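Here is one chain, start to finish.
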Amino acid sequence: MKNAVLAKRYAKALFAIGKEENALDEYAVSLSEFAAMVAGSPELVDALSNPLYPLDAREGIMKELVKAAGVSTMIGNFLRLLVQKRRADVLTDITEMFQVLVDQENNTCQGVVTSATEMSAGLQAKIQETLEKITGKRVTVTSKVDPSIIGGMIAKVGDLVMDGSIKTQLAVLKESIKGSE
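Its structure:
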């Protein structure tokens, strides 16, 4: 809960700056890529957020990471501020909240479609079109493959979940058979 409140506060501050600079999408991409890079390395997460390391050492690490990543000056300053304020451990939450704010601004939302096998580009486009009609927003669809669902697909957009998987249908059938005994 505490991290969510902090993440929202920092994300809103960066959002206000990004909107003023007309660079929301650029900031979202930079922040997302940087957060993924850091999250992909437990050693980096520890080096940036562990209070046992001196603050100047953590700041130095962030400075080098920012330089290596080639992010904009504003994002670099923001990331260094997170280390200075001992909030580097909230970077992933801030990134997610920032993306939510950008999506709201752009009238878009993120969707995940899980299927048993890889979907064709045509099918993915049809699914995206259908989700856009249902939500009334532009939907960015990410596809996942999960053979355990057997067939069909599961679409998630925000709080909306549409489960048309065979695995779920079989579970419902099983429960209805049990109930009729």
